[in-house]
Design goal:
It is a single chain. The chain contains 13 helices and 14 strands. The strands form three sheets. A six-stranded parallel β-sheet has the order 3-2-1-4-5-6, with helices on both faces. Helix 1 links the parallel strand 1 and strand 2.
């Protein structure tokens, strides 16, 4: 099989389509896949790529598709539902697995496959999107600068742009469940936005609050640092409102409210437009601290000339 051939499951989604669109620039040949025939076929025709239609419950079709490629990119969220059947099939087919997940619980679940994946000679790599590639690189850089670090803080801000349909849907499924940090090596649940602070991202100062970002799971495995917090930029006004969230978390967890929000998302655009992405920039900041209280900070400014999401650090 060609080394540059790979399968994209969920190719009709916002990020799946971007991966398919930009694949040719990297001399990659994707096979587009998903369960919605009309959407997948339309995209495949437009981009002139082969395609396959199957549901992940169809193990025979899934295994057949995986055996034609060396790697699959899972772009079909929510990943709490799609990761397991695909990874199980990858271990049987000997196919490498990548996804664009950002959910702490999914990272921790996939971590349990480590021994089986090694035995099968299969790479299982979750979080190959914005969450967690740039932040994870920042974490490792800081760890190399300060090997004795015992605490890690990461923060990010996006100027312009917006959420994709899939990310927004995942966030709705997590409404009312609070936040999380890693403390003494264990993931500890706490209120969303329990901490807030001003962060100097180099080009702009932004207020940021703690969120259950994927790095709470992954940075521990990358760096070995046992205390990890992740922050995102947010309006101070919204932060103050979120401090009252505990009063209505029960309401946010109801199916009724989630259904209303889901319908609103479904009516909107699938994600930022090409023009919005061209104008948007993402900023990364990190800090490590050792047992003496000494600190080292680094920020990642946008690289000139970045033109689409597949440009990385």
């Amino acid at each position: 099989m060609p080394d540059n051939r790979f399968l994209v499951y969920g190719a009709n989604g916002y990020t799946g389509e971007l991966i398919a669109r930009y694949a040719a620039e990297y001399n990659l040949l994707p096979i587009l896949a998903g369960r919605r025939e009309e959407a997948i076929q339309s995209l495949a025709t437009r981009l002139n790529y082969p395609y396959k239609i199957f549901d992940l419950t169809d193990t025979t079709a899934l295994l057949g598709a995986l055996r034609q490629v060396k790697i699959i990119v899972n772009a079909a969220g929510p990943f709490q539902f799609t990761a397991k059947p695909i990874i199980d099939a990858c271990l049987q087919a000997g196919t490498h697995y990548i996804d664009i997940n950002g959910d702490i619980s999914v990272f921790e679940f996939i971590r349990q496959y480590d021994t089986l994946a090694r035995q099968a000679g299969v790479m299982v790599l979750p979080g190959a999107g914005f969450d967690v590639v740039p932040t994870d690189c920042t974490a490792l850089l800081l760890k190399k600068i300060m090997p004795e670090a015992i605490r890690l803080i990461l923060a990010f801000a996006t100027l312009g742009g917006g959420l994709s349909h899939g990310t927004a849907t995942t966030m709705i499924n997590k409404l009312g469940k609070g936040g999380a940090v890693r403390k003494n090596g264990s993931i500890v649940r706490q209120a969303l936005g329990q901490k807030g602070m001003w962060v100097d991202f180099g080009v702009k100062k932004r207020f940021a609050m703690t969120i259950p970002w994927g790095d709470v799971a992954t940075a521990y495995y990358t760096t070995g640092i046992q205390d990890v917090e992740s922050y995102t930029a947010i309006s101070p006004v919204i932060y103050r409102l979120l401090k009252m969230q505990f009063l209505f978390n029960w309401l946010l967890r109801t199916k009724f409210i989630r259904r209303i929000l889901k319908k609103k998302i479904d009516k909107g655009a699938p994600g930022p437009s090409d023009e919005q992405r061209r104008k948007a920039i993402s900023l990364i900041w990190g800090q490590v601290t050792n047992s003496q209280g000494e600190k080292i900070r680094r920020e990642k400014k946008p690289r000139p000339g970045c033109k689409h999401p597949m440009d990385t650090l």
